[in-house]
Amino acid sequence: MSEQNLVWRTDDTKKYYFGTELIGYGQRALADFDISRIALPYLRELRDETEETVHLGIEQNNKVVYLQKLESPQSVNLKSRIGGKLNLYSSAMGKALLAKKTYDELDEYLSKETLKPLTKYTVTSIADLYDQIETTKKRGYSIDDKENQDEVVCIGATLEKNGIVYGAFSVSTPDYRMNSKRKKQIISYVLETQKKIEQAL
């Protein structure tokens, strides 16, 4: 642990102290806690406006980790739980987070990640994923169109302030409740919620 700077020991007293490597983890944990606390009232409002399930997540080790799940008042079967993980490449929150990375960071991520199909709609081509990421960058929101779970569509966006990406959130709805008018409405709600939370950060 000493070699990894997780702890250090004084020569005179032989006592151990937390090392510098843990500082980043502490700051990250604090940021995660703050984003959850700050975002929650706005995410509840988004859930009530859309009557769909709303998630909040952060990126850890090339995955999205759920911090919050606000259930839809309507019946829906979503395979998600707080603390659960998602692929970046197949989820709305993940693709929103990928759109904030540099090309070098994307190349590094894709060099370690295999794009495995979770449904018949999952993007498994690196070229197609890059196209989706570019589209996400231009329009400011991402879409998971039944790519992570059959018959579930998600619209997501990141939460960023002063160049720091704190996480991402999404609205998830069964495909049968989605049409072009409904999609535009949810996108509008997502972008408005993004604006409110980022102003509160």
List the helices and strands and how they pair.
Elements: E1 7-9, E2 16-18, H1 21-50, E3 53-60, E4 63-70, E5 85-87, H2 92-98, H3 103-112, H4 126-139, E6 142-145, E7 152-161, E8 164-174, H5 180-200
Antiparallel strand pairs: 1-2, 3-4, 3-8, 4-5, 6-7, 7-8
Account of the 3D structure:
- The protein is an alpha+beta fold and 201 residues long.
- It is built from five helices and eight strands.
- It has a single domain (34-200), classed as GAF domain (Beta-Lactamase).
- 41% of the residues lie in helices and 25% in strands.
- The strands form two sheets. A six-stranded antiparallel β-sheet has the order 5-4-3-8-7-6, with helices on both faces.
- Helix 1 packs across helix 5 (180-200).
- The chain is globular.
- It starts with 6 loop residues before the first strand and ends with a helix.
- Pfam families: IclR_C.
- Residues 21-201 form the IclR-ED domain.
- This is IclR family transcriptional regulator.
